[in-house]
């Protein structure tokens, strides 16, 4: 969960967020 939040902020909740979900 922590890693997910970090990536979301790093990528502004875009591509990375979609990939994790």
Q: What do the pLDDT scores average to?
A: 58
- SSE succession: HH
Work out the number of β strands: 0
Low-confidence sequence ranges: none
Structural class: mainly alpha
Largest sheet: none
Description:
By secondary structure, the protein is mainly alpha-helical. It has 2 helices and no strands. Residues 1-21 are annotated as: Disordered.
In short:
By secondary structure, the protein is mainly alpha-helical. The protein has two helices and no strands.
List the helices and strands and how they pair.
Elements: H1 2-10, H2 15-20
Region (Disordered): 1-21
Characteristics:
single chain; 21 residues; mainly alpha; 2 helices
